[in-house]
Design brief:
Blueprint lengths: L2 H18 L4 E4 L6 H9 L4 E4 L3 H15 L3 E5 L3 H4 L2 H10 L3 E7 L26 E3 L7 H19 L5 E7 L34 H12 L4 E5 L7 H12 L3 E3 L15 E2 L2 H4 L3 H6 L4 E5 L6 H9 L5 E5 L13 E4 L2 H9 L7 H19 L9 H11 L4 E5 L3 H9 L7 E5 L9 H9 L5 E6 H6 L5 H6 L3 E7 L15 H9 L6 H7 L3 E5 L2 H13 L3 E7 L2 H20 L1
Parallel strand pairs: 1-2, 1-3, 3-4, 4-6, 5-6, 7-8, 7-10, 8-9, 10-11, 11-12, 13-14, 13-15, 15-16, 16-18, 17-18
Helix pairs in contact: 1-2, 1-6, 3-5, 3-16, 8-12, 13-22, 14-15, 14-21
Cofactor: Mg(2+); Mn(2+); thiamine diphosphate
GO molecular function: 2-succinyl-5-enolpyruvyl-6-hydroxy-3-cyclohexene-1-carboxylic-acid synthase activity; magnesium ion binding; manganese ion binding; thiamine pyrophosphate binding
Keywords: Magnesium, Manganese, Menaquinone biosynthesis, Metal-binding, Thiamine pyrophosphate, Transferase
Length: 575
């Protein structure tokens, strides 16, 4: 067997095993050393390929696709700094629990550390952020080595998905020649539609003794609080609202919890809690007896202040797998169990709490919603208005991908409960502004309707990601809120230091984004009122391809407008 056949069979068995193990999407960036992997993946009949030129964009595209599908996605690149450009997305995937299978091609061992071009130290390149790293053996063609290749492929997919999902990294040293021969017989090897390492995961549920112990602790209290942070399980909402109804307790639902939207009952869902909890006196009035939190920490900083100030109360954090996501630093009891099953078990316990406590939260929530949804007489379209109009216009059975900084905070504030089934996604693992366009387009590559809401800095930072929309004719609506810089800093203490504020934090760009959009073949609209935005959104949802709708706002006016809303809520709640 010559080297080309060895290379071909080794790579083909690896790629086929990825598919057998459930991985069917790969995002490839062009390069020479990765030729065997790239060509073989393109040749496989059951592998979907996306070719994204820039590696940073490619990795975020894969991240958005993996989030939307809730499945592992592979990324493939050549050797050298190409692999380093994956780093930001891999960090996000680690903290955001997104399953990525990272496949980096490398120079063979004899070309490392000798000054060969495009050769860097790729062993353990991603360090702590990879759940598992493996340096693949040089290709060999005997049966044991083909089984070895399959075993590593299957383990990679399983490890990326198992427990708290995340990225895994396999490094492939490859010698020239690099072109595989797809005419070899039995190219894909074993074809039994069975993974090399089948995995069966059982349900995680509290034992009856543990459940009874938890129930006894809760029964001694009257004012309970359920908090739902970011999570992606679409079945969770129905279970948690049934638990809240059984207990008669409020649910503070983060916009990324998937609890604010859908067909389930929402009588106990408090979506205005961020505005309610901004006042320290109100936070003291609303001291709970216990908190049960499902999912990650909510976006709301006011909620963070709330739990820090009530650090002495019992707090329970429910995670489906072992984890310690408790940034407040409070003493906490962790419950590692399937959240849906736990809700069902607790609801069956027939515990009831103080109904007046729930009524107080519901009354305050109505006050908050009244002021937040109140429209001003001014013709100016504020950032909050833009978010409100978007949530009214967004189609049922679609996804909203939300950028960080002001965008996610405005969604937290102005996204009210709705019977629409809206899947809310965001990159809240590391909370960066990088890669947002690519992530949104990765989600859009599934074919489902996707709207991306983000600011001008995020859009600029990843504008080259728009090439994927042109290249693959992806349908996406991007609502671009342009406050000419870093709007979030206007709400932070840095705004008080005007000598340095604009240069270091405001960072105005004065960029005409219409030219960028049109360069990538997109449709562009500039809107100035609620009605114009509503019409532009409706038009975008009825058209094909890339649509970018820009809303220009003023950072200072936006800050004052938000604060006036919060002050009106605070004033009514305290009177």
């Amino acid at each position: 067997m010559d080297y080309t056949e060895v290379l071909t069979r080794y790579t083909a068995n690896f790629v086929d095993e990825l598919v057998q193990s459930g991985l069917t999407d790969v995002v490839i960036s062009p390069g020479s050393r990765s030729t065997p992997l790239a060509m073989t993946m393109t040749e496989h009949p059951n592998m979907n390929q996306w070719v994204i030129i820039d590696e940073r964009s490619a990795a975020f595209f894969a991240l958005g696709l993996a989030k939307k599908k809730n499945r592992a996605v592979a990324i493939v690149c050549t050797s050298g700094t190409a692999a380093a450009n994956y780093y930001p997305a891999i960090v996000e995937a680690h903290y955001g629990r997104v399953p990525l299978v990272v496949l980096t091609a490398d120079r063979p061992h004899e070309l490392r550390d000798v000054g060969a071009p495009q050769s860097i130290e790729q062993i353990g390149l991603y360090g702590y952020y990879a759940k598992w790293f493996h340096e693949m053996a040089l290709p060999e063609g005997d049966s044991k080595m083909l089984e070895y290749a399959r075993s590593k492929a299957s383990r990679a997919v399983n490890t990326a998905l198992d427990g708290n999902a995340g990225p895994v990294h396999l490094n492939f040293p490859l010698r020239e020649p690099l072109i595989p021969d797809f005419t070899v017989t039995n190219l894909w090897g074993l074809q039994d539609d069975k993974a090399y390492y089948p995995v069966f995961n059982g349900e995680r549920r509290l034992h009856s003794d543990q459940l009874n112990q938890l129930i006894q602790k809760l029964q001694s209290h009257q004012r309970g609080l359920i908090v739902c942070g970011p999570q992606l399980d679409k079945e969770f909402a129905e279970a948690v609202v049934q638990l809240a109804a059984s207990w008669q307790v409020p649910i503070l639902a983060d916009p990324l919890s998937q609890v604010r939207s859908g067909q389930h009952h929402k009588d106990q869902v408090i979506e205005g809690y961020d505005a309610i909890l901004r006042n320290d006196l109100i936070r003291k009035q609303l001291k709970p007896d216990f908190i049960i939190r499902f999912g990650a920490m909510p976006v709301s900083k006011a909620y963070l202040f709330y739990v820090k100030e009530h650090c002495e109360i019992p707090q329970y954090i429910v995670e489906s797998e072992a984890s310690y996501r408790e940034p407040a630093g409070n003493r906490t009891e962790f419950i590692y169990a399937d959240p849906e099953l736990l809700c069902n078990d607790l609801a069956a316990a027939n515990i009831t709490f103080d109904g007046k406590w729930l009524e107080k939260w519901q009354s305050m929530n109505q006050v908050a919603k009244k002021h937040l949804l109140e429209q001003d007489d001014s013709d100016m379209l504020t950032e909050g208005d833009a978010t409100r109009v978007l949530m009214e216009a967004i189609p049922d059975e679609s996804s909203l991908y939300v950028g960080n900084s002001m965008s996610i905070r405005d969604v937290d504030t102005f996204f009210m409960t709705t019977p629409k089934r809206i899947n809310i996604l965001a990159n809240r693992g590391a909370n960066g502004i990088d890669g947002m366009v690519s992530s949104g387009l990765g989600a859009a590559s599934t074919g489902d309707p996707v709207t991306l809401l983000l600011g001008d800095l995020s859009f600029f930072h990843d504008s080259n990601g728009l090439l994927a929309a042109k290249q693959y004719k992806l349908n996406i609506t991007i609502l671009l809120v342009n406050n000419n810089g870093g709007g979030i800093f206007s709400f932070l203490p840095q705004v008080n230091y005007q000598d340095h504020f604009e240069a270091l934090f405001g960072t105005p760009m004065d960029v005409n984004f219409q030219h960028i959009v049109e360069m990538y073949g997109g449709n562009y609209a500039d809107v100035n009122s609620d009605s114009e935005l509503r019409d532009a959104l409706q038009s975008s949802y009825e058209s094909q391809g890339l649509s970018v709708i820009e809303v220009k706002t003023d950072r200072t006016v936006n800050m004052e407008w938000h604060r006036s809303k919060w002050q009106a809520i605070e004033s009514e709640l305290l009177n």
